[in-house]
Structure formats: C-alpha cells, structure tokens
Structure prediction request, 341 residues.
Amino acid sequence: MPAHRSRPRPRVLILRALGLGDLLAAVPALRGVRRAFPDHEIVLAAPPSLRDAASATEAVDDLLPASAPRRGVPELTGWRGDPPDIAIDLHGNGPQSHGALAALGPRRILSYSCPLPDVAAPPVWRREDHERERWCRLLKAYGIDADPRDLMLRCPPGPPPAPGAVVVHPGAEAAARRWPAGRYATVIRAVRATGRPVVVTGGPGEEALTTAVAVAAGLDADDVRSGGLPFADLSALIAGAACLVSGDTGPAHLAVAHGTPSVTLFGPVAPRLWGPPPDDPRHTALWYPGPPGDPHGPVADPSLLRIGAGEVIASVLSHIRAGSTTGRRNGPRPVGANGCG
Prediction:
C-alpha cells in the first residue's frame, strides 16, 4: 500500500505589498483573518524586507516576496503549489490588485473592487475611513470580525539599546512628509538641554539626512543609527524609548504598536486617516488643516511646514514629564494584554 500522505493545509493569501507603516496599520485586519481561519496557513504578499515585521504580528505564517515601484501592484509570480483557498485584497480598491489575486485562481476573493455576489451588504470603499478601520470594515462585510484597536506588538526580548532616549526619525519615503532637517536639529538641542539622550534613526538611503541633522544638533556619530536598522533592532529601540519624534511614517506606527509616547508631524494627510488612536494620551499628532496634499509628493507639504519647532519641543517635553510622573519605565517593559506598556 502507498504511504499515507497528509494533505497540505489550505492557504489564505493576503496582498499588502507596501511599506512598514502600511503593514502595521493592517495588523488588526491580519489578526482578524488569523482568528477566522485557524487551520489555514496565512501567507502575506509583501516586500521581503518586511518578513520579520510580518512575523512580529503573530498573524502571518509565511511571506510571499512581492513589491512594485511607486506602491504599485506586483505580479504574484512567486506563488507555488495549489491556488489559494482564500485571497484577500488589503492592497487597494482598484481592479489591478484584485486582478493580481484572481490570476492565481483562488476559490474565493475578498476585496473592495469586486465584491462577491452572495454578500448581503457588499463593502464600499470610503475615502474618509481611517486606514485601520478600512480593512476591518472590509472583513466584517464578509463575516470576519476584526477590531481596529487590536494593534499592539510584543516587546522585543532583552534590554533596549538606548533605554529612555528620545528617538528622532527625520526621514520619510517622500519629501512631502519630511519636516525640515534644521527644525529637527532645534528640537534635539532642546531635548538634550534637559539631560535626556537622543538617538537619530534613518532608513536606507537617508544617511546624508541623518548626518545633517546630527551635525546641526551637535550629536556624536554613536547617536546615529542610519541606513535602515533591521526590524528587530528598530523595534527594540522604539519599544525602550521615552518618546519618538517623526513624520507620518513607519516608525510612528511602531511607536503606537509598542505603547511608546510619540509626537507625529502630519502634513498632506490628516491624522484622522493615518494617525494614532485619538483617545490615547501617549500620542500627539500635530497637524494644521489645509487642502488635501499628495503624501508621495516631491516637496514638503505646506501644512507640514506650518508646524513650528517650539510646539514640537513642548509636546516632547510634556510626554517626558508625564512619563516621569507616572513612573513609566524606560527600559524593558512586560508584555500585557495589549503588548508593551
């Protein structure tokens, strides 16, 4: 008799081939899928650089390397084996992302662009939705419960590399979301005047920016972590920080995921669409209302430039004082029901 072979687990393929902030904003939806399909293998189609971040969500079993320039829709040519049992489009609302999944022949596709005909209340894309709520609402239309507040990550093991430091991340994928380097340097000098250490971080290709900020602020080379830290190192640094200061970019979402106080500077996109939970006092979103801008634009957004260094300094110092008053530890923090904190 032939040897018995167990059948492979059915797979769910989720398409979200974007950046770190996009992945973290989708954590509540990913966890909803994990709970809904406990016996399936959950595969995330995303850039290979996000493999460790995807694992940290505790909702993804494997990563299908997938990316395209300018946040486009990638071809999922790396898929192997049987078609996905379920394919879920968390990438966008256009037919292109739905089509990339449909090309693999899944039994069922859950998306905004082509709702299934048997759904009683088909999901409708709403521009005014917060990103976390948007994808939870998509899943709920298909009977999958997802809580937009379920966004915390576990603290990385071991001691943080710079406990109690203020972490400043001046970069962003697009110039539209980059506050001027000189203003970041002004903030750093004011924070250091209180005796608080400061660490500057930067992503790949941002070495010149982080160097310029550090030199203007009088920091040493040891205070700069440039070139794109591995996710585990960036996560540990932010989890152990007293506060994060950044634009609307991936590290801001990581601070929210770890319960680390943050001051986030918004410009082309309102914080009600991409910002931290508005009822969480650990996070300050600075923003001046104006016409909607292009978050991927080539120059700093006018609304972002309206934010002054003085108000950023006041917000950072307020968080530091609040942490001292409440006895918040600036070192390793135990994992509770909501992650770090």
Summary: DSSP finds twelve helices and eleven strands in the chain.
